[in-house]
Amino acid sequence: MSDLRTDDRGATASDGGGDGGGGGSAYDRLIGLLEGGGARYRLIDHAPEGRTDLVSAMRGNDPAQAAKCIVVMVKLDKKTRRYVLAVVPGDRRVDLGAVKRLLGGGYAGFAATEVAERLAGSVSGTILPFSFHPDLELVVDPALLEHAEIFFNAARLDRSMALDTADYRRLARPRPAAIAEPPADASTGTSADGSADGSAGGASAGG
User: Fold this and answer.
1) Could you write out the three-class secondary structure of 99-139?
2) Is the pLDDT score of 19 beyond 80?
């Protein structure tokens, strides 16, 4: 059940489009799932933004509470590919090597934008930490689940959601696995392995 800034505007052209393999927009399916499951959430309207650091500042949440969503393609062999919706804290990057090992693949990389948006059911910058497509496996780094609430763009650039983490786990039923790189060093802006902060390539959510 929602308790802040809910309204009846419903899906609009800014919802992100796509149906993620089912009927209705990703926004409508999200709200339907949460309302049907009695989830505790808040809706937060803001200026259109999909970048994790900027939208986190607008919402007033720590970036570590933001659900950064990246669609990753894993090659199991020459003919077989699987797609993972990798969700990590907003202040960290997806560890592609960890995703590859988790699925037992030989290669992992960011999915092409058009593929990611089709599987996720919304455009880059608004991808939800939920999978509504049978070909998209949801994997979440446990570090994100340590917070009481998680924050993410609600399949729209101009609206975000703060969702109770226990309700998220209950309704999304993600596969927990360590798939995030170490947090960036605040003084240098680099990860512990020396890589620059922020995820490159692929379609992602602002989180």
Assistant:
1) HHHHHCCCEEEECCHHHHHHHHCCCCECCCCCCCCCCEEEE
2) no
Strands 67-75 and 107-110: antiparallel
**8 Å CB contact between 177 and 102:** yes
Give 88: exposed, middle or buried? Use CB within 10 Å, 0-12, 13-18, 19+: buried
The set of residues, in sequence order, having a beta carbon less than 8 Å from that of 21 and lying 6+ positions away, is 119, 121, 132, 133, 134, 135, 136
- Tokens representing residue 70 in the block: 């990246």
Best CA proximity match to 99, nearest among 59, 66, 72, 119:
72
Measuring CA to CA, which residue among 73, 45, 48 is closest to residue 59? 45
Q: Indicate the Cα dihedral angle 5, 9, 23, 103, nearest 10°.
A: -30
Write out pLDDT tens, residues 85-110: 999 999 999 999 999 999 999 999 99
Question: Is 70 exceeded by the pLDDT of residue 20?
Answer: no
